[in-house]
Amino acid sequence: MNSAVLQDYSGAPLGAPVYELNHVSKTYARNRVVALEDVSLTLRKGSFTSVIGSSGCGKSTLLKIMAGLIPPSKGRVVLQGQPVTGARRDIGMMFQQATLFPWKTAVQNIVLPIEIRDGPAAAKKAMDKAYELLDVVGLKGFENVYPNELSGGMAQRASICRMLITEPAVLLLDEPFSALDELSRDMMNMELQRICREQEATAFLVTHSIQEAVILSDEIVVMKPRPGRLAEIVEVDLPRPRTLDMMTTPKFGEIVDYIRGLLDKGEDM
Amino acid sequence: MTDVKNNPISSEQFEDTVWTQEVAFIDSVPRWIAMTFVFVVFIGVWQFVTSFGLVSPIILPTPWETLMDMIFVGKNLATGGYMLTALWITILEVIYGFALAITIGFTLGVIVGETAFGEKALMPYLVAIDTMPKVAFAPLFVAWLGFGIESKVALAAFIATFPIVVGTAAGLHAADENARMLFKTMGASRMQTLIKMKLPTGLPQIFTGLKIGAVGVMAGAITGEFLGGGKGFGELIRVAASQLNTPRVFSLILYLSLVGLALYMLVTWTQRKVVFWHKERVGDYDG
Question: With bands split at pLDDT 50, 70 and 90, how would you rate the model's confidence at A5?
Fold first, then answer.
């Protein structure tokens, strides 16, 4: 891998390593299933990495370990020079469902991480920032609306704000838009790219969609199942910023085909 | 039409095709008419059965007799007569019983729903007691607590506690995996997760338990009075029945049902205020 060709969202060379996984393995004690075997991975500052693979390849186990939700059986997990041994303030997470709480308004939902970590007074102070973030994702005017009045896409935008409010060093995205229809999904992916660029975020996306992975990522981690392990890390050298038009270019098609080939090979095992 | 060759049947030869969707008459009847209809049929059948002597007047009074007695009882209640005193005793039993059931039921529900220990240690016993016919405990409560209000409160609370336990425990399990993961990633403590996420998420189920409990508490209080005497409304019903004063029995039951209805509506109203985000359908009994 030649990192000289990698560029971040603004076109500058990629920054220092933010998140490092060294020979991480996970065996579930209960049924002795090896979910993850010897995974090593580095996320650089401002980079966008996707992980793709068929079900059972250990994607979600990997994500849970990176989020500090479950411990690895072997290996080192280090974020910003600090070992990850539990939930961390500098990790932001987003799920397939927006998971907004219906008894809180949009802004109240967004400041919830602050409320939990620093108490209601700090949450109140963070309100201004929540308003700004809602503006960034295009939800100005919906600050005091309850989630059941928001569409699926709007709810996911609000949950992006909730993820960003603590200014995390790394964003872990667990198929964030897979519950949306295809049109909203494409649009949200472009939004995500823009937001990541503006916030200079380091992002790690779990997805089932090769197209989505290619259009968003600098690097795509292709995984094989049983046991879950790395097959290959594919670099995407499409220029930044990406646009939806790029999805029709031959280069895009080439990368998609290549990854599909890798995934098919994985299926045979 | 010049272009008739290519387009032999032009849509322009028609008027606007506005048409009405047919709705069957029986589905379009407004609620109040439907309710009145059932009421009139009910009274009609009742009148028919009594006025043609199909049923002995001792067993079933006429609607008119019942109405007259309702007015009599209503007057007694409105003027603060002995019936109001009796009704107040029953209302107190219901209030104390419900309060006790909520306190115990909610506490047990949180222990069972939140801790694995509570689930393992308490749930089997709770299920075992719940399957017992709880009314059969009435003589025990009378023996332990006497013929006063206490034994009725105890029976009422005993019956209403279990649905509240089950509702609360089920409510605490209602939060989905994502919400739990989210709270974990935010570094929330167990208490924070319980208070800020699990309890609010479970409120619809908790209120379902409260509603079933509200119905049970009424039944418990009256059963307690039937079996343990006292000075409540149930005692008035029992005495009227033993004198074969069926119009009185009917009208007392009707007034009593108003108390039960009021309690049920109080719970429903509170639910609508507290769980404002949860739209409940009519007749939605299990959340």
Answer: very low
Q: Give the nearest partner residue to B277 out of A64, A89, A103, using CB atoms.
A: A103
Q: Where are the alpha helices (DSSP H) in B132-245?
A: 138-145, 149-172, 177-185, 190-193, 199-228, 233-242
Q: What is this model's ipTM?
A: 0.84
Chain A CB contacts of B276 below 8 Å: 103
A117 part of contact set with chain B, CB < 8 Å = yes
pLDDT at A26 over 80: yes
Q: With beta carbons under 8 A apart, name residues in chain B contacting A117.
A: 186-187
Contacts of A169 in chain B (CB under 8 A): none
> In chain B, whose CA is at the least distance from the CA of A147?
B277
Instruction: State whether A69 and B181 contact (CB < 8 Å).
Output: yes
- Say if the Cβ atoms of A117 and B183 lie within 8 Å: no
Comparing alpha-carbon positions, the chain A residue that sits nearest to B195 is A116
Q: How many domains does chain B have?
A: 1
B214 occurs within a structural domain: yes
Residues B214-270: pLDDT tens digits?
999 999 999 999 988 888 999 999 999 999 899 999 999 999 999 999 999 999 999
Do A97 and B197 lie within an 8 Å CB cutoff?
Answer: no
Cross-chain Cβ contact B181/A93 below 8 Å: yes
- Between A215 and A264, the more confident residue is A215
Per the CB < 8 A criterion, the answer to whether B151 and B142 are in contact is: yes
**pLDDT tens column, B51-100:** 888 888 888 889 999 999 999 999 999 998 899 999 999 999 999 999 99
Beta-carbon contacts of A84 under 8 Å, excluding residues fewer than 6 positions away, are: A65, A66, A68, A77, A78, A91
Q: Is A89 on the interface with B (CB under 8 A)?
A: yes
CB A126 within 8 A of CB A165: yes
- Per-residue model confidence as pLDDT tens digits over A84-130: 998 888 899 998 888 999 999 999 999 999 999 999 999 999 999 99
What is the pTM for the complete model shown?
Answer: 0.83
Specify the residue for token string 């490092």.
Answer: A20
- What is the CATH number for B79? 1.10.3720.10
Q: Rounded to the nearest 5 degrees, what angle is found at the Cα of A67, between the Cα atoms of A18 and A6?
A: 30
Domains and CATH numbers, chain A: 3-90+170-177+196-268 (3.40.50.300), 97-167 (no CATH)
Give the nearest partner residue to B188 out of A91, A101, A116, using CB atoms. Answer: A116
